[in-house]
Amino acid sequence: MSKKAPNSIDAPKGLPRHLLKAFIETDYRVFAPSGAIHLAPQTTAIPLSNLLAQYGVESCSLITAHNPRGALLTPEDNAVRQMHLKQDLEGRFEFLMGECVAKDGSWPPEPSLLVLGADLETTRAISIKYQQLAFLFSNVNGDVSLIFNDGECEKYDQPDEDADTFVQRLPAGASREEMFSTIKAAIEKCGFKIKTSH
Q: Please, which residues have CB within 8 angstroms of residue 114's CB and are 6 or more apart in sequence?
């Protein structure tokens, strides 16, 4: 169970409203030994506090290497990035598996890692290395904060590929649905919404 935390979200100036909304309306899950723990930004999660006490640490963070700066990559590319993240953490921190799931289903679930004992600045450095716009951080009390990486957010609206490159990035042999999903995500990254009919 989570309850409202007193702190507010400190979003970078100029961050698109739809992107902030997407981060807030995500179900952040941690797969703890005792069962799944659901986290939400700017709330206090007592089960998370209990988990930190169990591991004898005073902080933790939930991070991923998937989809740098909100650019949707292929599952294969994301898997490689996530493997490198795990390798960076091994031997330095204990971590548990997690997942970030868009409540409206507009974005593919992103496997994540709950890094136990990492402080805020260490987490920020790791997150920036993998070009992430934001991550979750919690203190020993289970107060969960959504932390933005200002420098990465400033690069969010800067195009880093032309149309030909984008087309080449579409999955080879992909179904119509897979192609549509990739294109839809790219369009929604620009702040537009697509309504579909069934």
A: 30, 60, 61, 62, 95, 96, 97, 98
Q: How many CB atoms lie within 10 A of CB 116?
A: 20
Quick one: DSSP state of residue 172?
T
pLDDT for residue 7: 47
Task: Give per-residue pLDDT as tens, 1-36.
Answer: 455 444 457 667 767 788 888 899 999 999 999 999
Q: What pLDDT, in 10s, does the model give residues 94-110?
A: 999 999 999 988 889 99
Which helix or strand (DSSP H or E) is residue 184 part of?
Answer: helix 176-189
104: phi then psi, degrees, rounded to nearest 5: -95, 5
Q: For residues 96 and 98, give the distance between their C-alpha atoms in angstroms, rounded to a whole number.
A: 7
Residues 93 and 116 sit within 8 Å (Cβ to Cβ): yes
- Break the chain into its structural domains and give their ranges: 2-154
Which residues lie closer than 8 Å to 163 by C-beta, 6 or more apart? Answer: none
